[in-house]
Automatic annotation (TrEMBL):
InterPro entries membership: Aa-tRNA-synt_II (IPR004364), aa-tRNA-synth_II (IPR006195), aa-tRNA-synth_II/BPL/LPL (IPR045864), Asn-tRNA-ligase (IPR004522), Asp/Asn-tRNA-synth_IIb (IPR002312), NA-bd_OB-fold (IPR012340), NA-bd_OB_tRNA (IPR004365)
Entry protein name: Asparagine--tRNA ligase
Domain of life: Bacteria
Keyword flag Cell cycle: no
Source organism of the structure: Parapedobacter composti
Reaction(s) this enzyme catalyzes, per UniProt: tRNA(Asn) + L-asparagine + ATP = L-asparaginyl-tRNA(Asn) + AMP + diphosphate + H(+)
Length: 481
């Protein structure tokens, strides 16, 4: 018999209909009540077995984690917590699960433990909810851009360039490390390598995205990016997904407007399409917060926080204004910051970003016009201020609990300025002639930004570690599965 998804059955009203359900046993109580989940929804359906008429050997095989198929009429449930249940007439074990060995028991497991069994953690309610929200957010991103006529561009994963100029790249090679071919002066001879030159995994699709935007107008990328930065934090991955729109004829203001609109759209989409998951995650977070000292607990629950973000215009201010606020701030005066703000020019650490967002403004913040020295070569240079300080048309969007969620800028479209900046920052112009061509032929103002997708999922799910919002996280010393 064809099986029905539990999601559909839980909403069904046609009592008495004969149904088949296939799924995994969550719990089996009193030799009678099986809670079955098939992944179609967070909810389980209850199947009731008549233990008097069921073979004992079969009953013993109904264990947490086992895959089963049950058939019987869908009846009104007398039990609490569910409207319908299945009166089991036939039950088949599709795959046993030895209760002595199955690591997921019907009890609370720590997220750390579940990370070690990431291949099985999909079966928990938490990860069921997280990956369903991740899916909705991902779909929402495509929907948002499609509705606005953006072209989804697949930029390469393997590249020969360093888009961010930060040198945090994973090499891609087929050379035999034990016998690397050498040039006469002893250097590795990349001519012998697969691509005939050094290549790496991309850190960003932006530069290729710009090429496309300078013809198609508005484009976006959404794909995996890789960073070999040795940051073992709750917000960094070595492999993460990034959404990078790039728009011709956009200036920084337009760029900020689009980013704010996108973030609000996808958060609302998740609230609308995953209400049960977000409710579950809200409760999970509240439980987790109970273990924290009062002072560290957040003032808002997850759903309130998401609405709060939708209902408020993101605060926009310049880096220079932010530095003034930070310098005057209590944690700086009382030397509570790990990195004290010495003055204009220093890079902001996440403690500073979080102070601005969580304590000063208490809402998402867009910082603009950072010092040129701490930002990438492609950002548009401003005229020097009265004190001769150089800034670029950068924008970072900072979110509560997350810090930097978005990084972007208006691009330097003026050929001479761009080349000069590249030389000053030792970015090889020879390797980026193709990029410079956009500035040689029909250059135009344009802008773009990158959203760290996992950081977005982190915010919307209220999870606290980025390793828990991507199925198989890659971090220093960890590439399991
Ligand atoms: O600020 P980033 O480095 O900007 C770029 O890569 C630009 N090319 C984007 C653009 O203008 N098209 O990275 C963008 C975002 C960050 O704000 C952060 O959310 C996320 O990507 N990100 C990371 N997420 C997880 N793990 C990491 N190691 C990340 N590094 C950056
Ligand atoms: Mg950044």
């Amino acid at each position: 018999m064809k099986h029905t998804r539990i999601k559909d059955l839980l909403n069904a009203t046609e009592y008495g209909q004969q149904v088949t359900v296939k799924g995994w046993v969550k719990t089996f109580r009193n030799n009678q009540f099986i809670a079955i989940n098939d992944g179609s929804t967070l909810g389980n359906i209850q199947a009731v077995v008549d233990f008097n008429s069921t073979d004992e050997a079969l009953l013993k095989r109904i264990t947490t984690g086992a895959a089963i198929a049950v058939t019987g009429p869908l009846v009104e449930s007398l039990g609490k917590g569910q409207r319908v249940e299945i009166k089991v007439e036939t039950l088949e074990i599709l795959g046993d699960s030895d209760p002595e060995k199955f690591p997921l028991q019907p009890k609370k497991h720590s997220l750390e433990f579940l990370r070690e069994i990431a291949h099985l953690r999909f079966r928990t309610n938490t990860f069921n909810a997280v990956f369903r929200v991740r899916n909705a957010l991902s779909f929402a991103i495509h929907q948002f851009f499609f509705d606005r006529g953006f072209v989804y561009m697949h930029t390469p994963i393997i590249t020969g360039s360093d888009a961010e100029g930060a040198g945090e790249m994973f090499k891609v090679t087929t050379l035999d490390f034990d016998h690397t071919p050498r040039t006469p002066d002893g250097k590795i001879d990349y001519k012998e390598d697969f691509f005939g030159k050094p290549t790496n995994l991309t850190v960003s699709g932006q530069l290729e995205g710009e090429l496309a935007a300078m013809a198609l107008g508005n484009i976006y990328t959404f794909g995996p990016t890789f960073r070999a930065e040795n940051s073992n934090t709750t917000r960094h991955l070595a492999e993460f997904w990034m959404v990078e729109p790039e728009m011709a004829f956009y200036e920084l203001e337009d760029n900020m407007d689009l980013a704010e609109e996108l973030l609000k759209y996808v958060i609302r989409f998740a609230l609308d399409h995953c209400p049960d998951e977000i409710e579950f995650l809200k409760n999970r977070l509240s439980e987790e917060e109970k273990n924290k000292p009062q002072a560290e607990r957040s003032e808002m629950d997850l759903i309130t926080k998401l609405h709060f973000c939708l209902d408020n215009r993101f605060e926009r201010l310049t880096y220079t204004e932010a530095i003034e606020i930070l310098q005057r701030s209590k944690p700086n005066q009382k030397k509570q910051f790990k990195y004290l703000i010495e003055g204009w020019g220093s890079d902001l650490q996440s403690e500073h970003e979080r102070y601005l967002v969580e304590r000063h403004f208490k809402k998402p913040v867009i910082l603009t016009d950072y010092p040129a020295d701490i930002k990438a070569f492609y950002m548009r240079l401003n005229e020097p201020d009265e004190q001769g300080r150089l800034t670029v048309r950068a924008m970072d969007i900072l979110f509560p609990g997350i810090g930097e969620l978005v990084g972007g800028s208006q691009r330097e479209e003026r050929y001479d300025r761009l080349v000069q900046r590249m030389q000053e920052m030792s970015v090889p112009t020879e390797e980026l002639e193709w990029y410079l061509d956009t500035r040689r032929f029909g250059t135009a103002p344009h802008s773009g930004f990158g959203v760290g997708f996992e950081r977005l999922v982190l915010f919307v799910t209220g999870m606290t570690n980025i390793r828990d919002v991507i199925p198989f996280p890659r971090t220093p010393n960890n590439a399991e599965f």
